[in-house]
Every structure is written in structure tokens, then in C-alpha cells.
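Quick one:
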Amino acid sequence: MNIEDLLSKKRQDENKEIRYPIKKMKTKDDYAMVFLDNEKIMISVDAYFKYAVASLKGLDEQLYVQLKEDEKRLKAYRGCLRRLAEKDRTVKQIRDYLYRYDLDKKECSDIISRLQDYGLLDDEKYCQSRITYYENALLSKKQIRQKLKKEGISDELIDRYLDKEQNEDEKCLQLAQKYLKTTRNKSVNAAKQYIISRLMSAGFAYDSAKYAVESLSIENENELELLRKEYQKTKKKYERKYEDYELSQKIYASLLSKGFCSDDIKKVLEV
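Output:
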């Protein structure tokens, strides 16, 4: 009996155990779709040829289970491709995504290795690219490190590409100039404190933040007018509960806390 006869006999034996009749099949460039009575199964090209699906009239229980497992891996892989088409991802991000498909560690590792072999998944290139992006966005080194670690980049890669010697003062100053534009309705002192606070929240050291603020020309030509407006608002707030000296002290303390100069406050209170 030659090979063709053996294969024919094998197919006949398999077809005797059919539990899931195949209604039709469609082949695409990178997968095949097998239509059964109440469902359809997407299978990889490898599985299509490995199990000689084209020659089958249906599936036995064992082959059905095998093709369902192949479908799960195929859908997981195609899902990864879609996510990587949207934007670059790290190995950790893709591994976390694969968990939803209930794959074991080896199956996840196989998919990740395949993506890496195709150059679609590369933590080193991702690290370099994101550092450049975050640097241009004026993030501090502390912020950049925190973001990269959260995204799954190792300390080794971060240390390799994040320039520890780079002076952050210039970056800090650029960000301070950006924050300055949002302080038009603040007193000079309040604006300075606000900018320093924002810079430190962004991960810059106090010395760098202070240097940046001192390098800015923070002036408010309308500060006295702004003070008068704040005075009226504050007076309206307290005059129902306080009067005379106590009212003046409440207003004075409130305006002082907003960064206005003590002498200017006294002048407004005396009017």
C-alpha cells in the first residue's frame, strides 16, 4: 500500500468518527475558517496543513479540541498584532494583554518570542524612543524613570539610555515658563510658590525649581488692581460674620496667604 492509499485510509477512519460535520471552509492569507453546524473555528495556516483539514468531512472530538486550542493561540497572536499596530508596546504590556486569553506561560512566551523575532516587540528600542518623547515633553528624570518602570522597562535599560549627567535646569526653566502663563490672576509671590510646587510635583528637585523661578521675570503690572478685586471678594465673604477690627484682620490674613505684599494690603485696607 503506497503513501496516498495510507493517507486515504486514515482519512476514511477519521471520517467514521465525525462528531462535528464541516459545512464549509474558507481560506485567507494567514488563517482558515472552518464552519460547523453551530459555530465556526478560526485556525492557523500551520494547523490547516498539519491536520489536513481540507480533506476532512468533519472533526472528531480530539481534533475539535486541538483546533479550538489553536484558535485561542491564533486569536491571541492576532490581538497582539492589532495592539502593536496602534502603537509600540513593551514585553510586559503584551504579556499582560495575553493573560485574558487564558494561555499558559509557554504559549505566552512562544507568542512573545515570535513577535520579537519579527522585530515587532523590542524593549530596548521602546526605551530609547520613549525617553526621547518624554524628554521633549519636559518630564523630569524621576518622572521618566517612574513611567518606564510602570510600562515594564528594566532598570538596566533605563540606566543605559537615561542620561544621568544631563543638567535638568534648562528643562525645568522651560516648564516653569509654561506654568507662568497660567498665573495671570495670581500675585507675584503666589505665582512663584505655585510654579515651584508644580515643578516639584513634576519630579524636579527643589533647587532646580527655585533656580527656574528665580530666572523668570515674574511681574504683574496689575497686581494692585488684582489685590483690590481680591479685597472686595474677601470682604464680601467675611463681612456677614465680622466687623471693624476683626473684619480687617480676617481680610488681611486671607490676602497675605494669597501672596500679596503686606504694605500693599495695608494701603487697600486704609482706603
